[in-house]
Design brief:
Length: 496
Amino acid sequence: MEYYAEVAAGLPRHLRHFIDGEFVASPGSFAKLSPIDGRELSRVAEADAEAVDAAVQAARRAQRGPWREFTTAQRAAALHRIADGIQQRFDEFVAAEVADTGRPIAQARELDIARGIANFRTFADLVSTAHSECFESVGADGTQLLNYVTRKPLGVVGVISPWNLPLLLLTWKVAPALAMGNSVVAKPSEEAPTSATLLAEVMRDSGLPNGVFNLVHGHGPGAAGEWLTRHPDIDAITFTGESRTGSTIMKAVADGVKNISFELGGKNAAIVFADADFDAAVEGVLRSSFTNAGQVCMCTERVYVERPIFERFVAALKARTEALRIGSPYVPGVTTGPMISAAHRDKVLGYLRLAVEEGATVVTGGDVPRFGDACDNGAFVQPTIWTGLPDSARCVNEEVFGPVCHIAPFDAEDEVVARVNHSNYGLAASVWTTHLARGHRVAQRIETGIVWVNAWYARDLRTPFGGTKLSGFGREGGRHSMDFYSELTNICVRVA
Ligand code: NAD
């Protein structure tokens, strides 16, 4: 058996909540199915309202316990111990992510788990080296005043995360929340519950006081996710997922006027100018369209190529796409895995049919691959390229969240900027050009939270991350995370 399949076979088969330092079950449970071959991987506890309440109460008690006395240095040390704990169980985390999602092993190793560790180390370092604002002023009566700012934890933070980068996106929020002294109730996606359960084991073993990190499993609407957002004793909700879910959560927290941070969907564009390094642009767009089978929030689904190189670019991307190898991650050489579930595959297939109805030319893909083995019970979709759709087509405007991109020609800089910005979303974009000034100019005109020039998905964790329009609300990363996860108090002292 392939090594990581063997490690996965040793992972827990009954996934439980982690509340107040203990693993607990619930009367209800649901099956987590493999997207690779459809078999049942585990039974997962389905939190009822009592379990969610117990987790929130445990987190609240933790705010009054020893955690409150932890100095910044002690919190940073705790975060480094958690990072060490993930590092020590690196292969189990990789195996969990690969089994739950079907992603390539190399991606789980190099991106998902490596970033999960980096999230804890980065925020440990940031909180250790953070400074505070200070202003000296003179009042109207001539008194000298000293203003300085202190940070307090928000209190109990609800973290709700998606399935597409399970550990990476969960820890992206848990790490800064803990760094700032909050306690956490995390609700991972029902589609990817295993790495979160391993993280709870690491938290327990790291010596974090009981109740500082709690985990509840379950679904979203009418279940654990919704109850968490409606719980009166939560101080803030930080959420990554679909824009529609963000809108539902915003309504749920409105009455309590809770703090929220939202990282939501996207319909991201790549712009390839005729002066681009052609091969680098083809490789970049290949990666940005098909990494994780298109299931990364920053994946490109709209590609605009300057007309003189349009045909050549489409042909080159077609050739590179057809060289991708789709299948089980346990087969050597496989580059592209399945959709997360049969339901998500069916949603993506719906868009493949719609694109044809809308008049697309299917350059490559457009169907379900056949394997002649157990993978035929999995949730695979061929990497697909379309051309020929009008800008008004639903497939050019709605987030598919699968291995698809549409390529359209453009003639002028102003025109392409307008077409890229004509979107309800505003998460990410990439620009491919060797013209230095144009790279800067176009990047500054695009209405998204992040723009890469001659790059994609390079992330410095100190920089702000988030989206505009339907893609989100607020920024996380570096001091922006510290700002979200803490309450600032200005202290004004009369010194003379
Ligand atoms: P989703 O919104 O369906 O679910 C995300 C989480 O929210 C899950 O844990 C789910 O159980 C929970 N949830 C669902 N309904 C809820 C409700 N009514 N109340 C409370 N919780 C609820 O999203 P998904 O399908 O898991 O993830 C894919 C989406 O996430 C895509 O749209 C993608 O673009 C987006 N995403 C965005 C970013 C970003 O950083 N902007 C990153 C990754 C994914």
